[in-house]
Amino acid sequence: MDTHNRKANFSSKFGLRIIFSIAILLIFIEISSSKHLGVHGDEHLETMVKRADNHGIDELGEMGAEEWGMVGKKGNQFVVNSQPYYFNGFNTYWLMVFAVDQTSKGKVSEVFQQASAVGLTVCRTWAFNDGQWRALQKSPSVYDEDVFKALDFVLSEAKKYKIRLILSLTNNWEAYGGKSQYVKWGKAAGLNLTSDDDFFSHPTLQSYYKAHVKAIFLSLIVSSQTVLTRVNTYTNVTYKDDPTIFAWELMNEPRCTSDPSGDKLQAWIQEMAVYVKSIDPNHLLEIGLEGFYGPSKPDRAQFNPNTYATQVGTDFIRNHQALGVDFASVHIYADSWISQTISDAHLKFVKSWMQAHIDDAENTLEMPVVFAEFGVSVKDNGYNSSFRDTFMSTVYKILLDSTRKGGSGSGSLLWQLFPEGTDYMDDGYAIVLSKSPSVSDIISLQSTRLMLFNSKCSWKCQWGCKKKNAQETFLYHDDL
To answer: Which residue ranges run through the membrane (predicted)?
Structure first.
């Protein structure tokens, strides 16, 4: 079978799974309703199945259909057009870099197409590449317009497949430059810097970061003392006004180990969150934290994976109370933080780690929480695909339990989704949907269930209308 047919069959296969799941849901709903009207259930079942076979999803009802509005926040929930917005998503960090080259550009479209086919609606990716190969920022405030256009393309393709983006602005780690590259630039400029953590406190390095943030939001064209907003070269929509952007992320996994008190990182978060919001008040903002508890809540340290986690300069509660931060982020890496050998202890940790953060997001922070990275590496000792399936199902079930109550557990982003032919980029966590049918089924079911919760019925009925029994039969029956 040629490559074109494999792609077509993949998209068709998983698209039909979502259609079938929604068809089952609506069968339950209509049967429940018909009983009150005196219509025989079997007759209604046959009619509904025929409608699903003959007409597909459009005539079954537009479950979760919505205008392409900006994502906002209402209390501890995300909202779009005044409706709740719970999502299932993924990470693919390298999209911008791949979009630069015509030989790899198609992979961007491919991963969006495959993600959309299983109902994934949010993608987290990098909006930075500092001083590296195919760098966006070649040196402080010096940009490669071809790479900027590649980011434009990523945004336009995401919108085409109805996928929103969380865009990260720099990295704690050396990959793609990050804070260490800013320190190198500072040293080259003659600054007396002794640690990569000087990124968080040195005024010059802070100005470099702010200039990058400004460049992302605003074009570098200045005329008559007016800075013109950047317009996407593919969509002609300014970044600040584009609903395709779900949120901005200050940094991927910030840590400041030189200051375990957390004061240095906290000051940076407070300053940069306010700065980003001053430029773009339209979009949501998050920090990019892994979720470790710090000194502000010593009683919560019991939920950390190890004692070292309290010493990396982050503080889940305190950091997320900074002005301008709209929602919390948490990562889940039991195999990195507890043991690289697969065991039930990983699942036990996942359950307590997630529930603690959902509880804190609801009761203390009063904001949504997104589990922005989670996965299992094939390089782990004792790895098997069955454990990965169980791990993912555990994450999804905990989130669904929160969603059912209209809670703070608002979404997850698996690490990470790859199309075929990108194996050389795999860090062990990559999932190729066409090669992982069981994972695809798990993702598709979770996506369909969340689609229901985003429907107008769930919102208007405040999570409990006459269709509740039919909905819950579908939402919590794992064999479907």
So the answer is: 14-31
